[in-house]
């Protein structure tokens, strides 16, 4: 807009402007402004004077686009502001107006320089640029040595000068000063008025709101307001004495520099910095808030790790006995009341099935093992040389018997660890030693690898294995296998193979008297049970995350209430609703991110301690990332309502809050 256009077109034109409060829910309406008609031109120094309750502060709020009129028209540079949305009004405040309040309205957690920089943050200025300008303004106002001081470390006059510097940060084309000397001593008040005189002389449009007629006389034009109406106006000063006005933004321009990627990143950085400072200042409260998130994240990580570790331990124990195994045994025929017996012919039939890799007959029964004067009752078993392959059970020391031992009915044995511990408690190496099994001498060839309990109460290591032919002839007097161990090629077809075994043996034996114990199905069932338990543990732990999220929401709601005036200050300096929403969302997310990191570290430390205590623990990156992600999501979800509440606050109501 050119200077000529500015001098002929009023900068601000009010036509029958009205403002009422109340009138809702049966409350009577109170009209504060009653048909204000006024024109203000660029470069004027105007004082609006009136007693308390006259409506001058309400008029200032309307002039500064902090509030909307209930009637009449407000034209800024020829455009009706009634057609502007909240963001457009925020942009106008940011680029055209600068506010100087009686109560200074500085953010207590920010330094003098940071308070001054605030309008430039919302205008999208680069960090270096705004920092240099803020330092320059504060130095020019005599506060060059107070840049890092917070408001409580400054005198009233110094705080008001910071407020003036903030009003000038984005150019301060229109300075709205509401009782700028009201809270100051006479000397500080004179210094502030001198600064306003300088701004007016430099081309700023200065609108001074005051009840002090002596202060009002410093202006070039004095307008008196009483009971919501203008009662006198000294009129516009002669054009020739007016300085060249500063250029003004066009309200019709919808482009916003604050929406550029660089500006958004800069604003996000400032939001993070401010959020971290608030967290640090209120660190005890923050710590209590974090506790719920920390416990929640750590619980999810630890419980899922313990659940997964337990599942893996069970599966590993089961896999020791072969995940691809089935066991075939004869069952009693209830009609005849006697048990059926498997035969070696049945074993050969099973071996011929296409999915069967190994079929090993096994004959078992208790025997008494003796060495010297030590007797030990244990499980005896006769197996073929397929034992190691069929049951995945190698020897830990020594060797297993071979085919020649099987053919010659050799009296050789392989013992389990429990038998070794009982018979060779003196530490003698059992390999090569001779023991008696039911008074029959056997030479020990090796010791089986330890397996522990195989799903039942008894330990699998409590046994002695001899060749099948030897067991049949020398120990049990029968070559009928007690059961047959079957290993399959394709575990996915284990169920079909089990059914096939039942059918072919029923056809061969002319009776359906065999049962197949499918280890694969058992493993699947146990795995599913363990997975269900793990999920339940995770869900239980997730409840604490929700509780933590509720704590975050509660604290954020309390924070919004405590910082209502700060929200009003940010809005007055040009923050849009989405800027306020982003500010408080960032704070909520920062709390949960901090809690999430602490929870991950805590969960890992607890898990490490459990590992030291021999508790099976397996950490999952997916679980860790999921728990951390849920913490961040918790901040977004539970922080949104407080943030939205903050963004929806009325600027005037927020500024007037205690």
Structural class: alpha+beta
Oligomerization: single chain
Strand percentage lies at 15-25%
Computed over alpha carbons, the radius of gyration is 44 Å
Overview of this structure, please?
With 658 residues, this protein is an alpha+beta fold. It contains 21 helices and 22 strands. The strands form 4 sheets. The chain has a 6-stranded mixed beta sheet with strand order 6-7-8-3-9-10, sandwiched between helices. Strand 4 and strand 5 form a beta hairpin. Helix 17 crosses helix 19. The chain is rod-shaped. The relative contact order is 0.12.
Give a quick rundown of the structure:
The chain is an alpha+beta fold and 658 residues long. It has 21 helices and 22 strands.
Task: Furnish the topology, listing elements before pairings.
Elements: H1 3-8, E1 12-22, E2 29-40, E3 45-49, H2 56-63, E4 71-76, E5 79-80, H3 86-96, E6 97-100, H4 112-123, H5 127-140, H6 156-168, E7 174-178, H7 186-201, E8 205-210, H8 213-216, E9 221-226, E10 229-233, H9 261-281, H10 283-319, E11 325-330, E12 332-333, E13 338-339, H11 344-351, E14 356-371, E15 374-383, H12 387-391, E16 395-398, H13 403-407, E17 412-415, H14 417-423, E18 434-437, E19 440-448, E20 463-467, H15 468-476, E21 483-488, H16 494-509, E22 514-518, H17 519-562, H18 564-572, H19 577-612, H20 621-647, H21 651-655
Parallel strand pairs: 3-8, 3-9, 6-7, 7-8, 15-20, 17-19
Antiparallel strand pairs: 1-2, 1-4, 4-5, 9-10, 11-21, 11-22, 12-13, 14-15, 14-18, 14-21, 16-19, 17-20, 18-19
Helix pairs in contact: 4-5, 4-6, 6-7, 9-10, 9-19, 10-17, 10-19, 10-20, 17-19, 17-20, 19-20
């Amino acid at each position: 807009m050119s200077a000529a256009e500015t001098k002929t077109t009023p900068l601000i034109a009010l036509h029958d402007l009205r403002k009422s409060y109340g009138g809702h829910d049966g409350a009577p309406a109170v009209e504060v402004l009653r048909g204000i008609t006024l024109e203000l031109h660029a470069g004027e120094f105007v004082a609006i004077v009136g007693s308390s309750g006259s409506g001058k502060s309400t008029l200032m709020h309307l002039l500064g686009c902090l509030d909307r009129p209930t009637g009449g028209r407000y034209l800024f540079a020829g455009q009706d502001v009634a057609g502007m949305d909240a963001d457009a009004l925020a942009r106008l405040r940011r680029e055209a107006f600068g506010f100087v309040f009686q109560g200074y309205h500085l953010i207590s957690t920010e330094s003098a320089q940071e308070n001054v920089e605030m309008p430039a943050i919302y205008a999208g200025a680069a960090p270096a640029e705004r920092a240099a300008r803020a330092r320059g303004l504060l130095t020019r106002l005599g506060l060059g040595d107070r840049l890092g001081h917070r408001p409580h470390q400054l005198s009233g006059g110094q705080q008001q000068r910071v407020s003036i510097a903030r009003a000038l940060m984005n150019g301060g084309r229109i300075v709205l000063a509401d009782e700028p000397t009201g809270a100051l001593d006479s000397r500080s008040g004179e210094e502030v008025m001198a600064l306003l005189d300088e701004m007016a002389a430099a081309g700023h449009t200065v609108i001074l709101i005051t009840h002090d007629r002596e202060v009002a006389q410093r202006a070039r034009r004095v307008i008196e307001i009483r009971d919501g109406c203008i009662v006198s106006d000294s009129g516009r000063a002669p054009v020739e004495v007016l300085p060249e006005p500063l250029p003004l933004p066009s309200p019709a321009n919808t482009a916003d520099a604050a929406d550029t990627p660089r500006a958004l990143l800069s604003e996000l950085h400032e939001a993070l910095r401010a959020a971290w400072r608030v967290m640090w200042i209120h660190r005890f409260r923050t710590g209590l808030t974090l506790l719920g998130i920390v416990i929640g994240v750590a619980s999810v990580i630890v419980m899922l790790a313990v659940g997964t570790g337990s599942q893996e331990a069970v599966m590993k124990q089961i896999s020791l006995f072969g995940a691809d195994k089935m066991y075939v045994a004869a069952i009693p025929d209830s009609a005849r009341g006697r048990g059926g017996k498997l035969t070696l012919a049945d074993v050969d039939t099973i071996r011929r099935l296409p999915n069967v890799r190994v079929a090993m007959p096994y004959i078992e029964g208790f025997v008494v093992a003796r060495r010297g004067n030590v007797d030990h009752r244990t499980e005896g078993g006769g197996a073929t040389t397929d034992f190691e392959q069929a049951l995945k059970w190698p020897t830990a020391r020594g060797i297993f018997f071979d085919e020649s031992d099987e053919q010659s009915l050799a009296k050789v044995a392989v013992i389990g660890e429990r038998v070794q511990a009982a018979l060779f408690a003196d530490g003698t190496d059992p390999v090569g030693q001779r023991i008696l099994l039911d008074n029959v001498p056997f030479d020990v060839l090796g010791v089986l690898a330890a397996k522990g309990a195989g799903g039942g109460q008894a330990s699998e290591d409590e046994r002695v294995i001899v060749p099948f032919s030897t067991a049949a002839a020398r120990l049990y007097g029968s070559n009928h296998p007690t059961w047959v161990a079957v290993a399959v090629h394709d575990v996915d077809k284990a169920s079909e193979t089990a059914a096939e075994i039942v059918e072919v043996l029923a056809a061969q034996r002319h009776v359906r008297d065999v049962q197949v114990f499918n280890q694969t199905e058992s493993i699947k069932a146990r795995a599913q049970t363990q997975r269900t338990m793990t999920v339940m543990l995770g869900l239980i732990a997730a409840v604490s995350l929700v509780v933590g999220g509720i704590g975050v929401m509660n604290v954020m709601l309390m924070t919004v209430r405590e910082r209502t005036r700060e929200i009003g200050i940010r809005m007055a300096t040009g923050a849009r609703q989405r800027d306020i929403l982003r500010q408080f969302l960032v704070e909520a997310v920062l709390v949960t991110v901090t809690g999430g990191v602490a929870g991950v570290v805590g969960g890992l430390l607890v898990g490490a301690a459990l590992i030291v205590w021999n508790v099976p623990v397996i950490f999952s990156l997916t679980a860790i990332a999921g728990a951390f992600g849920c913490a961040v999501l918790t901040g977004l979800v539970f922080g949104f309502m407080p943030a939205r509440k903050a963004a929806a606050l009325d600027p005037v109501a927020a500024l007037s809050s205690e």
